[in-house]
Write a structure and sequence with these properties.
Helices cover 25% and strands 24% of the residues. It has seven helices and 15 strands. It has a seven-stranded mixed beta sheet, with no helix packed on it. A six-stranded mixed beta sheet has the order 1-2-3-4-5-6, with no helix packed on it. A hairpin with a 5-residue loop joins β7 and β8.
Length: 243
């Protein structure tokens, strides 16, 4: 069966009290590239989601991490353990964080703000820190740079979209006019917007990155949080329900 193109996965996270996530698989004649990989322990869910769109997970060649938040790279260690042939890639900036050479950036920022928080907020911050530190480090096999074009799906351009995280990247699948946003944009029933400023390391830069993506000449946006949104001929955006 033909699996060429951009395959959007949907993983139900309601058992965690969270919204679904939408990793993406880029497929062409030579490679299958998974974009982001969910929380720690999510490999079985990823395998089932890939099978639902006729992709055998063991045939994936590479995982690209858009940024090192634990819901985007949490399962990378277990993927590499079970499928050692799969390469891991990220932005050059993010590589040392994913490899564990530098403590998670959000932990460092959180520690700076800890003294100013209420007791309840400190407890929440402590639990968040534990989740971040539960992500096992993984070696990065290749660094991606903004403006670089990879051969995936006939030409996929890496876009630097800092703000949510400093090394955040998005991917523009040029021949298919499709933009994989990571967390630079989220979708709520077809409404595209930047992620909540609360979660941005630099909210103003995140706003600039979101505006730049919204101005691009693309026909489809795929948001990790919210799924796929297509642009109709009249310019309106339409939510694609993957249920």
């Amino acid at each position: 069966m033909n699996v060429l193109g951009v395959k959007v996965l949907k993983i139900d996270c309601s058992f965690m009290g969270r919204r679904p996530i939408h990793p993406v698989v880029l497929c062409d004649e030579r490679e299958r590239v998974l974009i982001d990989c969910g929380y720690p322990g999510f490999l079985p869910l990823l395998e089932r989601a890939a099978a639902s769109v006729n992709i055998e997970f063991g045939r994936i060649d590479c995982v690209v991490v858009t940024h090192p938040d634990y819901d985007h790279c949490g399962a990378l260690y277990e993927i590499k353990e079970k499928y050692p042939h799969i390469r891991a890639m990220s932005s050059e900036f993010d590589a040392p964080y994913i490899e564990g050479k530098i403590p998670p950036l959000r932990v460092s920022i959180g520690m700076e703000k800890l003294a100013s928080l209420s007791y309840e907020m400190r407890e929440e911050a402590r639990r968040f820190r534990e989740r971040l530190e539960s992500v096992k480090p993984v070696g990065i096999d290749g660094a991606l740079r903004g403006g670089e074009t990879m051969p995936w799906c006939g030409g996929t351009t890496i876009i630097s979209t800092p703000g949510h995280m400093p090394g955040h990247i998005s991917l523009h699948v040029v021949p298919l006019k499709t933009l994989i946003t990571g967390d630079a944009l989220i979708s709520t029933r077809g409404k595209l917007r930047m992620s909540h400023p609360r979660y941005a390391v630099d909210p103003r830069e995140a706003e600039r990155s979101a505006a730049a993506l919204l101005a691009m000449d693309v026909e489809k946006y795929v948001c990790y949080h919210g799924g796929a949104v297509t642009r109709k001929s009249n310019g309106e955006l339409r939510f694609e329900d993957l249920a």
